[in-house]
Design goal:
- By secondary structure, the chain is of the alpha/beta class.
- The chain folds into two domains: 37 residues; 213 residues, Ribonuclease Z/Hydroxyacylglutathione hydrolase-like (Metallo-beta-lactamase, Chain A, 4-Layer Sandwich), CATH 3.60.15.
- The protein has seven helices and 13 strands.
- Helix 6 packs parallel to helix 7.
Length: 264
């Protein structure tokens, strides 16, 4: 009888200790998960500079997109850690501006066509990326998306394979910069885009109707019209907003000030 009581007591003690160990592990796991949630990076902050030029800040990284306008355009802004360039045209690739910036330790990411036009001091800092290629950089990933014209009269402006749009993946957030393009199949096929920066200016890229139609197909959560100054007309971004929201009221159209020195 005493032996049975001892065995039962021993089993109960083992179960009790096991339960306490399990409970402790669950508490430790919950604590780690909570700490991970607290430490998760905030969404990217994007500051418009002008036309195609923007600054992205995420998790301690400062990224300059298509920096032009000279160093004065970036007064009061943090220095870049990385620079992304979409194409060879002067409103995207401006060597004078690049040479005015503090490029100590800065990595430049650009298409081959851009690097070929650089002097040695810039090309030595430049990593090339091709359409369809993905790179992992400083805790985030970036994929180069084709950008080109479809209209026969505009095909020479941006030929397929020369320039890049970019999809950045910052944690769980995906951000698309179109670069100079029309409503190409590769844009329409994009998925799970949180913020889309979409160009619209004639005669170089596309109409507001084409831009809106593409956006309604790939359905980003938010769309930011940018790069909308054309020659001689300025694209009607209010019309773009109306077309998008009439087609899908769930897509938020966000209008930033891309031309701080102009009335539009």
């Amino acid at each position: 009888m005493k032996k049975n009581i001892f065995l039962i007591t021993s089993v109960l003690l083992i179960i009790l200790v096991s339960c306490k160990e399990k409970e402790k592990k669950q508490e430790e796991t919950a604590k780690v998960e909570t700490e991970m949630e607290v430490k998760a990076p905030s969404p990217a902050e994007i500051t418009p500079i002008e036309h195609a030029t923007a600054i992205i800040e995420w998790d301690g990284n400062t990224i300059y997109m298509d920096p032009v306008g000279g160093i004065a355009a970036f007064e009061g802004q943090p220095s870049p850690d990385m620079i992304f360039i979409t194409d060879v045209h002067g409103d995207h690739f401006n060597p004078e501006t690049l040479n005015e910036l503090d490029l100590e330790g800065v990595q430049i990411i650009a298409p081959d066509a851009v690097k070929l036009q650089m002097e040695e001091n810039l090309s030595s800092k430049t990593t090339t990326i091709k359409n369809g290629e993905t790179k992992e950089i400083s805790g985030f990933s970036v994929k180069a998306i084709p950008m080109y014209n479809l209209r026969e009269e505009a095909k020479d402006f941006h030929v397929k394979g020369r320039g890049n749009g970019y999809v950045f993946t910052f944690g769980d957030e995906r951000i698309y910069f179109s670069g100079d393009t029309e409503d190409i199949p590769e844009m329409r096929a994009l998925e799970n885009i949180d913020k889309a920066f979409v160009c619209m200016n004639l005669p170089y890229t596309m109409t507001v109707e084409s831009a809106a139609d593409a956006v309604l197909e790939f359905k980003p959560k938010q769309v930011y019209p940018y790069h909308f100054r054309g020659r001689p007309e300025v694209s009607d971004v209010e019309k773009f907003k109306t077309l998008v929201n009439e087609g899908d009221s769930n897509i938020e159209v966000v209008q930033l000030d891309w031309y701080p020195n102009e009335d539009y």
